[in-house]
Amino acid sequence: PGGTEQVQILLVEKDKVQLWQAYERLGQSALDSSKDKFLVQSTKVAPSEGLKAGDYEALSNFWTKVMANTSSHGVFNTKLPVKLTASEDGGASKDTPTTSTKSMPKTVAT
């Protein structure tokens, strides 16, 4: 609790092209005016679930079960503002703006 986590969000190609064109015309201000939000869903995980770090198949199965029966699992939705940035390094090409949140609260519940 209280920690932060930086994430990258991949945009669909159409949005990337539109954002990059706006960025080329207007600079960073074109990206700063975006009102995009990133939805984070979370729920409590009991130790009895047996989830282990890196076991993505088990995690996927867990979320399928949670979403099929949300009344027995509290699902929390948080919308985080997205800060768009253009990058010519760090794995992004000149024609591919990247998106990231400034910080994301990390909640660990047992």
Strand and helix map with partners:
Blueprint: E1 3-5, E2 8-9, H1 13-26, H2 28-32, E3 37-43, H3 56-68, E4 75-81, E5 83-85, E6 98-100, E7 104-106
Antiparallel strand pairs: 1-7, 2-6, 3-4, 5-6
In short:
By secondary structure, this protein is α+β, with helices and mostly antiparallel strands.
Q: Percent of residues in beta strands?
A: 25-35%
Helical element count? Answer: 3
What is the residue-mean pLDDT, rounded to a whole number? 74
Strand order of the largest sheet: 2-6-5
Low-confidence stretches: 89-110
- How many beta-strand elements? 7
Oligomer: single chain
Describe the structure.
This protein has 110 residues and is α+β, with helices and mostly antiparallel strands. It is 29% helix and 25% strand. The termini are close together.
Key attributes of the depicted protein:
single chain, 110 residues, alpha+beta, three-stranded antiparallel sheet, two-stranded antiparallel ribbon, 3 helices, 7 strands, 25% strand
